[in-house]
Amino acid sequence: DIVMTQSPDSLAVSLGERATINCKSSQSVLYSSNNKNYLAWYQQKPGQPPKLLIYWASTRESGVPDRFSGSGSGTDFTLTISSLQTEDVAVYYCQQYYSTLYTFGQGTKLEIK
Amino acid sequence: EVQLVESGGGLVQPGGSLRLSCAASGFTFSDHYMDWVRQAPGKGLEWVGRSKTGANSYATEYAASVIGRFTISRDDSKNSLYLQMNGLNTEDTAVYYCAREAGEWLDRHYYYYGMDVWGQGTTVTVSS
């Protein structure tokens, strides 16, 4: 299985400041035939199901605010929230779909400082 | 409105069985791969398995932790996905989510890129 490791496990950021979450895969999730990274990011708020934010490592899902951005390639990826809002308090997960046996990172809890 | 609604959760003794259902509406169910994802109390997300479409022979795939115990099936005529769970143990205690796999056509190929619609989940508790 591809192991996904996120850092940090938790993060506290001031309102309006930048938040950065990292995700590392145990093997490359870059598919050479189409040059796409098979990596998604989800947001999960308390008591709610996960919500797809970003796919192909950097494509925002429809309706996701543009303060959310994804970057990276191969084995190292980053989710950035450019200006933290109160509604962004949540746990964030990365997920690989390079292998058909999907795996998630352990999650990063984002709070307001 | 695109919607997934899970049902069938509850309390079951170790070694017991349970069948979860997921009712889909608002989209063409038969066109989509469908997945089950679970979340143990206070823990992260764990992918359980998927059901592919009829065009892909309704093939199923499973996480190693549930192979031989869990079976995923679907009934496209009822827009429903199922998860039959046998040989349950305390580690199977979790909220179970049904999710739709997202996909798109690129250069005449159809690519899946994650799960874009999720149900609210149903809780399974395995305890004596």
Short key terms for the protein model shown above:
heterodimer, A: 113 residues, mainly beta, 7-stranded mixed sheet, 4-stranded antiparallel sheet, 0% helix, globular, B: 128 residues, 11 strands, 56% strand, elongated
Please explain how this structure is put together.
Helix content of chain A is 0%, strand content 51%. Chain A is mainly β. In chain A, the strands form 3 sheets. In chain A, strands 2, 6, 7, 8, 11, 12 and 13 form a 7-stranded mixed beta sheet that branches. A 4-stranded antiparallel beta sheet of chain A has the order 1-3-10-9, with no helix packed on it. In chain A, a hairpin with a 2-residue loop joins strand 9 and strand 10. With 128 residues, chain B is an all-beta fold. Chain B has strands at 3-7, 10-12, 18-25, 34-39, 45-51, 60-62, 70-75, 80-85, 94-106, 109-118, 122-126. Classes of the chains: A mainly beta (113), B mainly beta (128). Chain A binds chain B through residues 1, 34, 36, 38, 40, 42, 44, 48-52, 55-56, 59, 61, 91, 93, 95, 97, 100-107, and chain B through 35, 37, 44-47, 50, 61, 63-64, 97, 99, 102, 106-107, 109, 111-116, 118-121.
Instruction: Give the mean pLDDT of chain B.
Output: 97
Provide the β-strand percentage band of chain B: over 45%
How many distinct helices of chain B? 0
Distance separating the two termini of chain A: 36 Å
> Separation of termini of chain B?
40 Å
Number of helices of chain A: 0
The fraction of residues in strands of chain A falls at over 45%
Coarse morphology of chain A = globular
Order of helices and strands of chain B: EEEEEEEEEEE
How would you sum up the global shape of chain B?
A: elongated
Provide the low-confidence segments of chain A as ranges.
none
Could you say which structural class the secondary elements and strand pairing of chain B correspond to?
mainly beta
